[in-house]
Design a protein that fits this description.
single chain, 86 residues, Arc Repressor Mutant, subunit A, three-stranded antiparallel β-sheet
Length: 86
């Protein structure tokens, strides 16, 4: 179930979405957000836990991950549906 993002994550989600249209790797996110490894790990982990991010293995290098952000409209629609269900 997707949950709303806290304000400290909305900014980072928005920047990643605008710059990548939702698909990126760790190095790209680090370059875009200009965060340390520690902060970036926390950011990506929290966005994933709240349901806004999917993580898959990179088919070219299984040690690396490919990140897929849920589109904003889809995420908001899911949040609204969750509230409607109670």
């Amino acid at each position: 179930m997707i949950r709303p993002l806290p304000s400290w994550l909305i900014k980072r989600y928005s920047v990643l979405w605008v710059k990548t249209k939702g698909k990126f790797d760790y190095d790209t996110a680090k370059k875009i957000l200009n965060d340390s490894d520690e902060v970036l790990s926390v950011v990506l982990s929290n966005i994933r836990k709240l349901g806004w991010l999917e993580v898959k293995a990179n088919p070219k290098d299984s040690r690396k991950k490919i990140y897929h952000l849920k589109p904003p409209k889809k995420a908001i629609d899911e949040i609204v549906q969750g509230f409607a269900r109670g």
